[in-house]
Amino acid sequence: MGIRRLRTRVPSLNLSNRVILSMHKDQDLPEQEPISPAEPSPSEAPIVAEASLAPTKKIESPGRKKGGGGPSRETSQATQEALLEIEKMTTPEEKINRSLEFMRSSLAQAGNPRFKDFWDMRHQALNLFKENLAAASRAHLWSAYVELSSEARRLKEILDEQSAFASEQIELAISALEKDLAEYNELISQMKPVAIVASSSAMKGKRELYEQLQGELNLLNTLAARINALRKEIIKTDMRMKTKAKFFDKLSIAGDRIFPRRKELVKQISQQFLQDIRHFVDEDFSREISKPQPLYIIREEIKVLQGIAKILTLNTQSFKETREMLSSCWDKIRECEKKKKEEYAQKRQASQQNADIVIEKIKLLSANAEKEGAMLPQLQVEAREIQDFMRTLDLDREAVHSLKTQIKQVLQPLIDREKSVEDARVEKQRQEEQEKREKGLALMRKAEDLLVRAESIPLAQIIETKASLEREFSEAAPGKAEKLRFEKLMKRLLDAIVDKKEKDLLNLPAQDREALTQLKEILQERHKARDEIKKNLEVHRKALGGSGFDFEKAMLYREIMDNDKERLGKINESIIEIEAKIAEIEG
Length: 587
Hints:
Elements: H1 2-13, H2 17-26, H3 45-51, H4 77-88, H5 92-108, H6 115-128, H7 135-182, H8 184-190, H9 195-198, H10 207-236, H11 241-288, H12 295-311, H13 316-369, H14 376-391, H15 397-452, H16 459-476, H17 480-506, H18 510-545, H19 551-586
Helix pairs in contact: 1-7, 2-7, 4-5, 5-6, 5-7, 7-10, 7-11, 10-11, 11-13, 12-13, 13-14, 13-15, 14-15, 15-16, 15-17, 16-17, 18-19
């Protein structure tokens, strides 16, 4: 009767498209362990139930603790109430029937299936099959359990197929966005520079900075627009809330890399541009209008700066302030036009007077340079102080160039003297390196001579001489090329030592050679036996780790493994003894 009742409820599980779309919007399916394609037969149900308990996360009842802590898994209120009701029942059949009824109601209820409650109760029901049940009841209940599990799997597959296509295109778009973020630096390098910045003389020193900031802002603006478009698309697209949450999480992660960086760059470029405009208005603009050049050049510069303000991504406050400051420059140009010639003449005269002051300081510097024991670093400090003082004075370009030339002429003799000292130091270093190279070559010649006389020299003397040569060569610290040649000679010496050892071994008495041969054969057999034991241990360990044996078989495999480990230890000791004996005979 239970099976017939289940089959009468199955059509209600194959929901219409309208109901599926409703679940598609509202139901967030929990993650569950996969159901195997082929369920076992009722007669195998107890074995499967016991075998599957090991890797399964057991869902404790609300009042049950695990190791003194809280519940091992969080469950819904409905599941907790059902578990409390099941605990009060006495027979296993009643408990399983109540579990199956709860699972069936979780799938076949009106509205959205409660998949999380289904899978939680499925875990609990699987544990109940371990209890003593009649064969007929076990077969009947297990069949209903398997059919419910299969139906849940089919229903979940239907829901997954409904949202697959809807999320596939969004997934591709998000993947493309993530790929662009992964190649962020490469995309920045491909961005075209803001050409109008290069046409401004006031911004010439900050050209690279503005091109870098605005180029990255252009990329961030594009990426931000794509994220906003994807958010709108996800909101109006029907899909599971879990899938939407996953997409929103991905977009949130991408947005965390874009929007804070964009806000920071907008603030940085706005502050920098506002600072540069203030500097231009307060300092550069005042100096520019006093230069003997047509005023239309200054007007063009202001127009360029106004054009740059429109192109750069500035905040509203900075844009407003820069426009106001640049507009005020036009009035200053008209006011300064009348005074331009007079101020230029006055500046020329002041420049000459300031140059005379600097010339007096240069004469003092020249007197200090002619003193005995004059040091170049100290004079360079004085020269920098004079140049710093020159920056505080109003000097025209010709005066500055002339004064710097005079300072350079004062310091040049000392610079030449320092250069000669440095050349002497470099020459001394070169000679030391040459001596190291010659010492290394001498040691290599000794190594070659030792290699030639290796046949007539005792083995111990060859080994000792080789170690001495290596030590002396290491202390000489030669170059890379000499080191490679020396290492090649040492390898040839090592081959000669090995050959000499083999010849000495062949000169052993026949009795020792026969014993040595037998020991090597025994050693080879021990190695084979050790490899075989290790292979068996690995096979037993994998079989035991599969959790496919009952308690009796597991104990048998553990006993076999313990015996193999004991044999392996004895064989290892035997190998060590045989190798020591072989070394003693060869020695």
